[in-house]
Amino acid sequence: MPKLLPLGDAAWTVEFGEAVDPALHARVMGFAQALERAALPGVIEWVPTFRSCTVHFDPLSPLADGLGERLLEIAAGAPAAAVLGRRWRIPVLFGGEAGPDLAELAARCGTSAEAIVARMTAAVFRVYMLGFMPGFPYMGGLPEELAMPRLATPRKQVPARSLAVTGTLCAIYPFASPGGWRLLGRTPLALFDVRRPAPALFAPGDEAMWQAIDATECARLEAEEAAGRLDRAAFLVAPEAPWPR
Predict the structure, then answer these.
(1) Fold designation for 3-77
(2) Contact, 83 vs 205, CB < 8 A?
(3) Cβ proximity of 2 and 76 under 8 Å
(4) How would DSSP label each residue in 35-66?
(5) Longest dimension (CA), the chain
(6) pLDDT of residue 104
(7) Global pTM?
(8) Would you place residue 171 in the very low, low, confident or very high pLDDT band (cuts 50, 70, 90)?
(9) Residue-range domain boundaries for the chain
(10) Any idea which fold 87-235 has?
């Protein structure tokens, strides 16, 4: 059963479970879609996550007092809705200065850096939500054998576009930022660009696979991206194309 949790005096969080799981996320997205259809007076916006959805509302609205009960009713009756997004093949330069934690991760797993890259490029990663900073994708799908805790001492600055992992999650930092995730590589693609109609590269429901590239190719693509000549559509995978599951 969904749980209702207060978040100050102007928001409710409807919690559906505790795991990072596609089926659970489908329940969250089904609730979000049902909430949009309901068009409840006084509701300002809602923010779906892995396992919950926070609903912000006007506390002075006449319907604010009974909103929590109404949200639970909607959550109980909303069907699951798996969001089918775009599929991406994203180039990544692994290891070296681009991925300073790759060798340590390999050592902890008792294998080689090449084997880690092979596992990363064979996995399909699903975007569950954006958060932390504009365009930062929280992605599930990291192979369990690669799961590691955060760094004991976070870095003061993670380079922009760094591919990083922690626990069973994977992400790419859109901008330079402090961070404690383990850095395995870097993509030449910008994750967030306000010059575009849709600034964020990823959206919830998207899937991505990584394609290993060398330093020369990475530098070429970075130059093309900086000049505004890189077409994002070139990295999309057609819906009818083979895609590992």
Answers:
(1) Gyrase A; domain 2 (3.30.1360)
(2) yes
(3) yes
(4) HHHH--TTEEEEEE-SSEEEEEE-TTSTTSTT
(5) 62
(6) 95
(7) 0.86
(8) very high
(9) 3-77, 87-235
(10) Cyclophilin (2.40.100)
